[in-house]
Amino acid sequence: MNSAQIEIQLIASLVAIACAIPGTFLVLRKMAMISDAISHAILPGLVVGFFITQDLNSPLLILLAALTGLITVILVEQIQKTGLVKEDTAIGLVFPALFSIGVLLISKNANDVHLDIDAVLLGELAFAPFDRLFIGGTDVGPKSLWVIGTILTITIGLLIAFFKELKVSTFDAGLSASLGFSPVVIHYGLMSVASVTTVGAFDAVGAILVVALMIAPAATAYLLTTDLKRMLLLSIFFGLFSAIAGYWMAHALDASIAGSITTILGLLFLMVYLFAPSNGIIAVLYKEKQQRIEVSLLTFLLHLKNHSEKRERHVNHLREHINWQKVRAKTVLELALKNNMIVINNDIVSLTKKGDKFTTQAIDYIITNEDAQIEGMKDDFFLFRG
Amino acid sequence: MAQNIAVKVDDLTVAYNYKPVLWDIDLEIPEGVLMAIVGPNGAGKSTLIKSILGILPPIAGSVTIYGKPYKKQRSLVAYVPQKGSVDWDFPTTALDVVMMGTYGSLGWIKRPRQKEKKAALEALEKVGMLAFKSRQISQLSGGQQQRIFLARALVQNASIYFMDEPFQGVDATTEIAIINILKELRKAGKTVIVVHHDLQTVPEYFDWVTFLNVKKIATGPVKDIFNDDNLTKTYGINYKVSIQE
């Protein structure tokens, strides 16, 4: 690895972490699309800032562009407040309008500078190491590394300081307001961080990848955990992983780095969506199948418990009495036998002591929904794993 | 019952998009009552609570808690929003939600520590939910979620409790458990204000009642004012829910 390669990966990693943090809260606040709006709508701010500063990495430009991001949020909210259109429509109205102003400004005035539409949409991470920061004549690294590093440091500082406020206002804005943590202040604080991060990341990775880096890691993490802190850490990890893996994928394919990172993000989500241990599609389908069988088993055992008369308990009659198809009846019968819950004597099925106890406990559990009584069964049966 | 006024509302008017949903409300809630706010859908019951707590800004009027504005008295007040107002898929546990009740006394930036955790565990125990402390909140039943909300208010150790439909979607056991806790709070001298829907249980659960339908219809002790006349005025139709002695 040469130093440019390391620098690119470092920039991509810092951008990924800086995006994953506000992204997690956007996803939880069901505001994922606002990041899309911000990332496009900051364009006129960037262009105007560029005219003033002539430097894509100037702090003034970043603040100006981030301000456009905040204006976007406010405009969307104002349009939505009229009650005439819904939030998604308001977003769809605001950001193309602002973005198109930016496109016009670029095509009229900035044809000869680095700011062009391709770079705006997809970014060009590969060129990031060429724009260096010099302090007192010494090369201290790529400018965008310093920009995103600063933004990330501030973001992490704010996250640690206001974690509890972010959590309570995201979960329950009403309680947050009544406790004195103004949800409005926190909302705009988060939006400011999201805007600044978007601007900082924009130059390196472009408008589309910024959205992907904010939303995809958080959405993936959301499928895997029920703890906010862990969700944040997982988002960061997924962002980081995609940044590095994406870089090497681009290297191997000789393709766009931004495109590769986004692809990895998409693949990661797909994998987790399919294979997550408790919420993944495959796990859910398997669990549903198991539950179906177990509910059948329980129905069957209950039937045996409720009927002492022999004709209700004859193997051949069971099928018509509880109205099951042959295969299902066989599966259930075998499962019950395997677990020593029934015995079959002369084709008459009877509950064993274990089966009888199990049935009583299971019914108790279902009615009271209390855990303690059933602790031992959890390992054998999915039904009781909640 | 000559007592202090816990909550005083003067000429309160609240509007959504210039359409008043609460009109010129005057209300004095004495300390130590267990009060129901009743009225039809859209009467402004939740709005009244939210504007007392400063969540919705009024367009006119004022609210004082023990003689001072709410902003200065936050620590005296606990609020239980409607259960449906939050996303129960939020990645957090029952204990963590209850801990949120301690955030107000901590203020900005400071983090909850052992003391807050202990208080939250005690509150969970009080509502019979200690065994569920580590449960993810989406794995709780509706009644259990309501108990968690109640525990979160208890942990605030306030003087005045505002509750928005705490009996909504809970089973009879939970309803009784909740009302017993509310009665205990009153016994401890706290003031409890509840948005309530089931008129049948008003006389049994509450000692004070406010009838509301955009305007205030009546407020006072249940035994004096909970009658067909006020019910009819509030609900518009000829209501016959006589007090069952």
Present the secondary structure layout:
The complex is a heterodimer of chains A (386) and B (245).
Chain A: H1 3-28, H2 32-53, H3 59-81, H4 87-109, H5 117-122, E1 132-135, E2 138-142, H6 143-171, H7 173-179, H8 183-222, H9 228-253, H10 257-275, H11 281-306, H12 315-322, H13 326-338, E3 342-345, E4 348-351, H14 353-368
Antiparallel strand pairs in A: 1-2, 3-4
Chain B: E1 5-16, E2 19-30, E3 34-38, H1 45-52, E4 60-65, E5 77-80, H2 94-99, H3 103-106, H4 114-126, H5 142-154, E6 160-164, H6 172-187, E7 191-195, H7 202-205, E8 208-213, E9 215-221, H8 222-225, H9 228-235
Parallel strand pairs in B: 3-7, 3-8, 5-6, 6-7
Antiparallel strand pairs in B: 1-2, 1-4, 8-9
Helix pairs in contact in B: 4-5
Family (chain B): Belongs to the ABC transporter superfamily.
Protein name (chain B): Metal ABC transporter ATP-binding protein
InterPro entries (chain B): AAA+_ATPase (IPR003593), ABC_transporter-like_ATP-bd (IPR003439), ABC_transporter-like_CS (IPR017871), Metal_Ion_Import_ABC (IPR050153), P-loop_NTPase (IPR027417)
